[in-house]
Each structure stands twice: as structure tokens, then as C-alpha cells.
Predict the 3D structure of the following.
Amino acid sequence: MTVKNGFTPEITPTIEELQAQERRLVFREFTAEDAWRLGSLLVELARERQAPVAVDIHRAGQQLFHAALPGATPDNDAWIARKRRVVERYHSSSYLVGAKARAKGTTFEESSRLDPDVYAAHGGSFPLTVEGVGVIGAVTVSGLPQLEDHRFVVEALEEYLSKSQ
């Protein structure tokens, strides 16, 4: 099995597995300090793997964290915005929204009829969900293939939540 940028390719997750991630990765609260710590964890992991990513955390329409690592480009910021808008609109991860369209034998672009220059249902943006409140924002990574972007965010959320809550 080939390892690239510290990531090992794995089998594509099912819709049920993706939904389970969203049910499991929930915060008790999400503060600006949480955004800083989660963002810093993502940057630390990306540096260890020499992953050429940009990282972004938004809450209620406000950018709380942003970093671009070596190899990331302005195009990654455009992808972040497009993927984040999918999370904000559908309250699901950008990868899950795309997977649901593919499972129906279509594409997100065809089924949603949304402007692909504004919305992208590609992996890498995950909802920030607060217990008893719902989706309040998104954490997004761009720079790797979409499944790796998704897995990277999920890994960081799992680590962060296991230590902080």
C-alpha cells in the first residue's frame, strides 16, 4: 500500500459510516479558543505529514482560524469556501453530500442545480455541531485528494474531542 503525505489510501466509507461520524463528532460547546486549538492541531498534523493544505474554521459566518501550509495555493482557499458553503447549506459534511448524490447515480452538480463556482460537494469540510444546538459552523481542509481531506478533518476532530470533552 502506498503512503503519500502520511496518508494511507483506504476503502471509501459508506453513507452510513459518514453519517455515524457526524453523529459521533459533536461538541458540548465551540468557542474561539476551541477553534484555535483545533486549527493548531490540524496544522501540527499537516506539518508532520508535509501535507500541502490550507485549513479554515468558520463559526456563524465568522472566520475564526485560517492557515496555509507550504504547497497550499490561493486555489485551496477557493475550494475551502465552496466546500464550506455545502456544509452551511446542508448541515452535513461536503463528502457525505457528494456521496449521497453519487449513490443516486448522479452528481451533486446535476442534482443540486447549484452554481459549481459557489458550491462543491468534495471532501474536506465537516460540520461543527454543538450538542443541543446543531450545526454552528464548519472546519475545512483543502489540498489533498477529497477523501484524504475528509479523513484528515475527521482524524483531527476525533483526537481533539477525545482530549477536550
Residues 23 and 129 are 9 Å apart (CA to CA).
